[in-house]
């Protein structure tokens, strides 16, 4: 859609729309009328989205996508990597945010995502896998900037306590608050959080028709939970993922296997050489005596 | 049990058995503090109406029939591809097909599951919003900034069109390939048939020559069906033999006056014998042949026919 200048946009909102659709909007406002105070905005979630130094371009694009999709987010300059992440709490406080998403890149390769409820915790650390950004051309959908998404969770999220906690935190971070000043009062997208293979799969679909026709908007990513901490960016570990293997370890194992392949082959060769019998089949030389022709 | 002395003591007591002794690591315990987790959930929960949060927990929507068909087709195609990729190695093939059923690996299956989950959420969520009396659709004339720019969307459209075109082209190529294959088969079968017929005929002739049969029916049976058009043309233009000088007059033909009545060339008034004109059509001449209309009439008629 065409980007409309701000004044024009406001005008568009106030334009008389069909009565049954938006009954609350008036056709005209009298200039003396006192400006109505917006008390409707109750759910005040503000999410700080930023990254540490050392994330690669794809991960950065993913972060930008999340920022565009979440009107209740606030940006922040990228942070120096520190062993203790408790400084983030202070940054959030100064930015007046009560939720945070921190992207932490390792080796320009692996991406970790921290999600936290800021002053009190809890905090979840995820490994992000299989990233596809919104700018990918196979994602054909599009939606209004700032529209509120429906959040769809798999039924598994109601079963185990750690999954319940993840659902609660994810829904509070990704859900756009009602009557948020930057949000739009229309519903044209769904986020799905599905649980499969011990991971959380995120998808974003555009609602083309309300009978259930959808098109994917993007981004796509898979969250592999690592740990849940009691406090924000620290504290006791409440839960650990028993299925989690760090990508560095996986790579190590692969390398080892590849290295072992060569060693294994050499060992086999030596073993074969050693165990090879000197005589392949014991033949009695006397057996051949009468076979030879005598002239 | 690290130092040598300790080990020796342990061996003396019979704790250590001879052979290779490896220190066994205790399996790592993974933390799962359920009570603390539950406390956190309770403190985190927002006591707000549903509209503020829009959270839905739902199962998958039932699969749409067209999607099921699409999925089946996709599976067939995949199976075909696998067949062509892995030839002869039965074990490997089986394994590959098995893997296809796992939604973690099978992209299409997995994505369709997510799609269905989203579908169920839309159906449920929109109806819930409508119950609360909240408008969901935006008016037609409402323009706002979109997440993806116009430029990007045109790019997407172009790519989609290109893909569609490519699919069409490949489909056409496939059809042509199959047609060519069919034609080749037909050609081969027809030549084989011809050869077989010839051989049969020669065999029959051989038999006849050697006096085994007196029957010559096989010569007539195998006659080709007569082409009516060919017959006409043969009759008209002649078939076989000398054509030169065929239309030349000779003594006999010059003397032959059977086709000449004499009346044709007489004046209309003189020939006014009403007897002759009685049974004739307007278009028919006296010789019984159809009259050819003039050039202008013929042109008119041709135009009318078209």
TrEMBL record, chain A:
Pfam families attached here? Brix
Known InterPro entries for this protein? Brix (IPR007109), BRX1 (IPR026532)
Give the UniProt subcellular location, in the record's own words.
Nucleus, Nucleolus
Q: What is its main location?
A: nucleus
Q: Where is the Brix domain?
A: 45-234
Where is it found, in Gene Ontology cellular component terms?
A: nucleolus
Q: Which UniProt keywords apply?
A: Nucleus, Ribosome biogenesis
GO BP annotations of the record are: ribosome biogenesis
Q: Does the keyword Magnesium apply?
A: no
What is the annotated signal peptide range for this record?
none
The function of this protein is: Required for biogenesis of the 60S ribosomal subunit.
Give the family this protein belongs to, as stated in its UniProt record: Belongs to the BRX1 family.
Listed name of the protein: Ribosome biogenesis protein BRX1 homolog
From TrEMBL, chain B:
Compartment annotation: Nucleus, Nucleolus
Whether Nucleus counts among this entry's keywords is: yes
Keyword match Coiled coil: yes
* Record keywords: Coiled coil, Nucleus, Ribosome biogenesis
| InterPro entries referenced in this protein's UniProt entry, alphabetically | Ebp2
Q: Where is the composition biased (Basic residues)?
A: 292-306
Which processes are annotated in GO (biological process)? Answer: ribosome biogenesis
Where in this chain does the entry annotate a coiled-coil region? Answer: none
Pfam families cross-referenced by the UniProt entry: Ebp2
Q: Where is this region: Disordered?
A: 167-187, 211-306
An example of a Gene Ontology cellular component annotation for this protein is: nucleolus
The residues forming the signal peptide are none
Known function? Required for the processing of the 27S pre-rRNA.
Q: Which family does it belong to?
A: Belongs to the EBP2 family.
Spell out the protein name for this chain. Uncharacterized protein
Q: Which organism is it from?
A: Trichogramma kaykai
């Amino acid at each position: 859609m065409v980007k409309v200048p701000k004044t024009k946009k406001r005008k568009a909102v106030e334009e008389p729309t069909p009565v049954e659709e938006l009954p609350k909007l008036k056709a005209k406002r009298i200039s003396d009328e006192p400006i109505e105070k917006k008390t409707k905005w109750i759910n005040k979630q503000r999410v700080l989205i930023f990254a540490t130094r050392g994330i690669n371009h794809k991960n950065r694009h993913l972060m930008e996508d999340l920022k565009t999709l979440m009107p209740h987010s606030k940006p922040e300059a990228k942070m120096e990597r520190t062993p203790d992440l408790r400084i983030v709490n202070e940054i959030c406080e100064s930015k007046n945010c009560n939720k945070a998403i921190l992207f932490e890149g390792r080796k320009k390769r692996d991406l970790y995502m921290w999600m936290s409820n800021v002053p009190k915790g809890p905090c979840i650390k995820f490994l992000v896998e299989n990233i596809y950004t919104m700018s990918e051309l196979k994602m054909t959908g599009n939606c209004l900037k700032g529209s509120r998404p429906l959040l769809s969770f798999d039924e598994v999220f109601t079963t185990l306590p750690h999954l319940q906690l993840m659902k609660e935190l994810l829904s509070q971070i990704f859900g756009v608050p009602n009557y948020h000043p930057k949000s739009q009062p229309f519903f044209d997208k769904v986020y799905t959080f599905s649980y499969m293979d011990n991971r959380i799969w995120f998808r974003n679909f555009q609602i083309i028709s309300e009978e259930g026709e959808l098109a994917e908007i993007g981004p796509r990513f898979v969250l592999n939970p690592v740990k849940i901490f009691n406090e924000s960016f620290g504290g006791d570990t409440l839960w650990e993922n028993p299925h989690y293997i760090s990508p560095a370890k996986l790579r190590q194992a692969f390398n080892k296997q590849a290295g072992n392949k060569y060693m294994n082959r050499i060992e086999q060769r030596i073993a074969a050489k050693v165990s090879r019998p000197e005589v392949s089949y014991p033949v009695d030389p006397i057996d051949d005596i009468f076979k030879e022709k005598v002239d | 049990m690290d130092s040598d002395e300790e080990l020796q003591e342990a061996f003396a007591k019979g704790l250590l058995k001879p052979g290779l002794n490896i220190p066994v690591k205790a399996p790592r315990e993974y933390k799962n503090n359920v009570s603390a987790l539950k406390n956190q959930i309770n403190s985190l929960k927002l006591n707000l109406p549903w509209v503020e949060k829009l959270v839905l927990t739902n199962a998958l929507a039932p699969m749409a029939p067209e999607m099921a068909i699409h999925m089946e087709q996709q599976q067939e195609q995949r199976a075909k591809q696998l067949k062509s990729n892995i030839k002869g190695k039965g074990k490997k093939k089986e394994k590959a097909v098995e893997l296809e059923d796992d939604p973690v690996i099978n992209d299409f299956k997995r994505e369709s599951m997510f799609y269905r989950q989203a579908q169920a959420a839309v159906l449920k969520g929109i109806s819930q919003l409508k119950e609360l009396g909240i408008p969901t659709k935006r008016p037609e004339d409402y323009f706002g900034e979109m997440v993806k720019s116009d430029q990007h969307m045109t790019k997407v459209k172009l790519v989609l069109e290109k893909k569609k075109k490519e699919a069409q082209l490949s489909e056409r190529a496939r059809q042509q390939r199959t047609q060519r294959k069919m034609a080749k088969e037909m050609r081969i079968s027809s030549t084989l048939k011809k050869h077989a017929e010839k051989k049969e005929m020669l065999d029959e002739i051989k038999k006849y020559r050697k006096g085994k049969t007196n029957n010559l029916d096989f010569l007539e049976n195998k006659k080709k069906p007569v082409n009516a058009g060919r017959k006409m043309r043969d009759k008209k233009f002649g078939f076989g033999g000398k054509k030169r000088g065929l239309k030349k007059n000779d003594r006999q033909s010059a003397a032959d006056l059977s086709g000449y009545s004499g009346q044709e060339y007489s004046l209309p008034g003189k020939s006014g014998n009403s007897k002759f004109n009685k049974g004739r059509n307007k278009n028919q001449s006296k010789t019984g042949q159809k009259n050819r209309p003039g050039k202008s009439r013929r042109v008119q008629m041709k135009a009318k026919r078209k």
